[in-house]
């Protein structure tokens, strides 16, 4: 019996210690790990990414829809951001304002249509011509 009690005590004391040690030593988890990329807010597969000095414009496509998001390179203070997505022959869908991380998502129906996208963060931005035709 005393041997069992000693093992139980050893497991109760060493168990949490070893678990914490594993979190610190295993790469990819724990406090030293780099932050994971956030999951996309748009459905579909990534179609294009346009990089500019203050952020990037990300485009995603499904069979029927195209989605766009403008993401700031350095999230933080609120600043003017905008994203616009226009299917050919229709009016643009725009999401603009003061955001801290991203503008959008903006989704348009674009089955068998070209689209034009623009995105900006703090006055700097990128735009496409007619793409995804």
List the helices and strands and how they pair.
Layout: H1 2-25, E1 45-52, E2 55-61, E3 65-72, E4 79-87, E5 93-99, E6 102-109, E7 115-121, E8 124-127
Could you characterize the architecture of this molecule?
- The chain is of the alpha+beta class and 133 residues long.
- Helices cover 18% and strands 44% of the residues.
- The protein is built from 1 helix and 8 strands.
- The strands form 2 sheets. The chain has a 4-stranded antiparallel beta sheet with strand order 1-2-3-6, with no helix packed on it. It has a 4-stranded antiparallel beta sheet with strand order 5-4-7-8, with no helix packed on it.
- Strand 2 and strand 3 form a beta hairpin.
- The longest helix has 24 residues.
- The chain is elongated, with a radius of gyration of 24 Å.
- About 4% of the residues have low confidence.
